[in-house]
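The authors assume throughout that readers already know how a fold can be written as discrete tokens. In essence, backbone conformation is discretised, so a fold becomes a row of integers matching the chain in length. A single example would do more here than another paragraph of explanation. For illustration, here is how one protein appears when written out as sequence plus structure tokens:

…
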Amino acid sequence: MTETRATAEAARRPAPEDPARPAGPLPPLRPRRARPPRRGRRQGAGPFLLLAPFLLLFTAFGVFPLVAAAWTSFHRVELTAPGRAEWVGLRNYTRLLDDGFFWKALLNTLTIGVLATVPQLLLALGVAHLLHARLRGRQFFRVVALAPYATSVAAATLVFALFFGRDHGMANWALGVVGLDPVDWQNGPWASRFAVASIVVWRWTGYNALIYLAALGTVPRELYEAAALDGASRWRQFLHVTLPGIRPALGFTALVSTIGAVQLFGEPLLYASGAGASGGANHQFQTLGLYLYEQGWVNLHLGRAAAIAWAMLLILVAALGLARLIRKAAA
């Protein structure tokens, strides 16, 4: 008992202070500075070595063709003698300003682009909204939506050329059923542009719908639940939750569709049999891409074709710059 009591009293006593330890609270520890990693020559050149294949390919197939086309646009070069180049300055560009076929091709490009891009994106948004809902066989409908994109341009254009046939086409048959007169879908100015635009809409709606569908999956469900609790209808949820949530996807598809509209080539080339690069007997659906092909590979004027190519690039840059200014002004 005596030993136990002595042990308990010793446990209650404070521990003796260390004479080597300074009195008072301990000073705060200073955080050690992290030394910056040493960048050797191999580590600094590593990212450039990884990017070297891309930079080489981009320079060979991207930058060099642009520079070569710019150089050719200031010369008179014929396809029959590409080695002979005669300096003409801005003559190829000034001739475009007085060329009625160029302005008609530009008007056709803008018209077909609007007729194809606006319905295409609206339909794609509606299809994506339907596919995003919980319904049976969603995977099957997604594959069906992407099937037109996987179809070749030649096959799709051939089917639509038969569909819009003047004498035995299904479109005129449907018009006759409702009591309307048949339409010349290949020679009519607006009818032919509408027919070409319908091919673009059919081929690219599913592609844009899948992009919107992927973007819809990133919108949080909590936002829809909060909007429903606040009494917002489905339409107001779509306007104030869905559209702001997929805004980057909307901008991307609008940009890609605009570029595709300016570069439209395959559909109008193959639409009318025998029309070729002229875009019809009266150039009624000749786009800038067809006009470039006609000047360079039919009329053999490579200098003019290069000038048209750079004019298309400048028109596209101006259109995108104008759209950006409008967006900033609206914001």
